[in-house]
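Sequence in, structure out. Go.
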Amino acid sequence: MAKVSPSVLSADFAKLGEDCRKVLDAGADMIHFDVMDGDFVDNISIGIPVLQCLKAALPDAYMDVHLMITDPLRYVKEFADAGADCISFHVEAASDILATIAAIDALQKDAGLVVNPNTPVESAFPYLDDLALVLVMGVVPGHGGQAFRPETLDKIRALRSECDRRGLSTDISVDGGVKLSTTAPQCVEAGATILVAGSAIFGADDIAAAGAEFKKI
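Output:
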């Protein structure tokens, strides 16, 4: 059974805490918190003050923070202090990868590395022994309304195979275009252990029911 990480970008920000509580009560394992800086990706989203407030409202929730920013190393401590439990950053970002992982580890948070669609998933392989998770993007980050890229499944398979070869229990997360009846089961079959879903959960008529359905995959 895959873990479910609903993305707050698709939540109603007028009732963010309430919506997140609904999905957690329905069985979601964590909350996916997307941060965009308008530089690494085109859009600007939310940041440290929102995370701090959400963590205060939901202190027991595991906050899966995805930094789509140019210099993640600069902000690791601030996000950790604000309530991040896992901090994931992009292999394509400017910060030194090993230094950023070390900074996250020093703060006793889980470290994750994210791979964009046009980046070979093998770029994450040198760091697997030091990571809690690898996040494979099924779409280009920062742009809404994209279709899931089918080659994402091959990336998940390759990553799963490498983790198994090394005897690692590293989580494999997938984000972008994850749909309940189609791509979500395909991702799990390929080896994904965490499903990041936004509109498929928060955009549903019944948020709690949608979250519960994802848990059954």
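Check: The first helix runs from residue 16 to 25. The radius of gyration is 16 Å.
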